[in-house]
Amino acid sequence: MPAFSKISKNAIVISGYFGFDNTGDEAVLASVVQTIQKDIPKAPIIALSANPELTAKRLQIEAVQRNDFGAVRQALGSARLFISGGGSLFQDITSIHSVCYYAMLINMAWLRKVPVMVLAQGLGPLHTGLGKWITKRALKKAKVLTWRDEASFTLAKELGLKEEKMFLTCDPVLCWQPEKVTVPLLPPGKKIAFCLRPWPNLNRKELAKTMDKLMEKNYNVVLLPLQKEVDDIELNEIESMMQGKPWHIPALTAEGIWQILADVDLVVSMRLHALIMAAALKVPAAAISYDPKVLAFAKQAAQPVIAEVENINAEKLIFEIEKLIQKPVLEPYSNKEALWQVSRDKIKALYEQNS
């Protein structure tokens, strides 16, 4: 059921991986909402969320349960624009379910003659022929597609999507301006935040050894989960293998994660949006790569990739981390405002054209 008693007409409906307490996706939604409220202040916004009550409360927008297709149809029935994204929605690395779900939403909007915009998405990986076929058929129905990285743009061209409808943009979180919230105080001294996630064959022992050695060298190790409970399982396991006691931060909102990252000296992350937030905050960061999207962003943001998830070695990690602490590699995303403006202009134009 909707989180509001009545669904507004002439709304912008936004779909993504929202309502699952994943910091990256919650930050994406918050930054897109912030943009729309700034550029089209009178436009109602309806998010499709796994937790519509919480989404509506946090962002002061309308929200409906993403799997309540009656409510979704109602929201789309009088909408003026449907936005798919951002995030990595069209990928079949775990299963084809994600591709089918987001393709279905685009089809639902298209059948109701609601203009579709694919916003700041990362495309792929798409390993199956069926995944590629469903993705192509769905994305062809979009009037505008903006991609957050060049690799996604290239893959979209390889799928046969029309280049004249596609534009390069950036992840909206790079231009986010979140409100300040209360967060735990971190200790004085050099602080290194580790943002890790579960992944097959992740070498926890080498990561635990890395953190212990860093603490012996008087660095403060901060364990920061970006997805509630999911990341904590991994971080708790690594912490149990350590001799020392790191600063394990409890799950926070996206705004809280932003503030913690602003107060550290280096971010070491598997999580894409920790790297994105670090770039936005001009905090040095290094990637542990497990997915092409991490490699793509690290390349764009000039963030060094210090390990592949399958080949983590404590000695090498410590060497690379100390090198970055002593001489940070920092090349701010200088064109982020111009890249995000591309998406801002397209959102506003599509909304106004469908008046």
Describe it.
The chain has 355 residues and is of the alpha/beta class. The chain has 13 helices and 13 strands. The chain folds into two domains: 12-170 and 336-353, Rossmann fold; 191-326, Glycogen Phosphorylase B (Rossmann fold, 3-Layer(aba) Sandwich). A seven-stranded parallel sheet has the order 3-2-1-4-5-6-7, with helices on both faces. Strand 5, helix 5 and strand 6 (144-147) form a beta-alpha-beta unit. The longest helix has 18 residues, at 336-353. The chain is globular, with a radius of gyration of 20 Å. The protein starts with 11 loop residues before the first strand and ends with a helix.
Topology diagram in text:
Blueprint: E1 12-15, H1 23-39, E2 45-49, H2 52-59, E3 62-65, H3 69-77, E4 81-87, H4 97-111, E5 116-121, H5 129-139, E6 144-147, H6 150-158, E7 166-168, E8 191-195, H7 204-216, E9 220-223, H8 230-240, E10 247-248, H9 254-262, E11 266-269, H10 272-281, E12 285-289, H11 292-300, E13 305-308, H12 314-326, H13 336-353
Parallel strand pairs: 1-2, 1-4, 2-3, 4-5, 5-6, 6-7, 8-9, 8-11, 9-10, 11-12, 12-13
Helix pairs in contact: 4-5, 7-8, 7-12, 9-10
Main sheet summary: 7 strands, parallel
**How large a portion of the residues is in β-strands, by DSSP E?**
15-25%
Multimeric state: single chain
Flag low-confidence runs.
none
Q: Which CATH first-tier class of the largest domain would you pick?
A: Alpha Beta
The CATH architecture of the largest domain comes to 3-Layer(aba) Sandwich
Helix content: 40-55%
Query: What's the number of extended β-strand segments?
Result: 13
CATH fold-level label of the largest domain: Rossmann fold
Shape by Cα distribution: globular
Overall mean pLDDT stands at 94
C-alpha-based Rg, rounded = 20 Å
Give the name of the CATH superfamily of the largest domain.
Glycogen Phosphorylase B
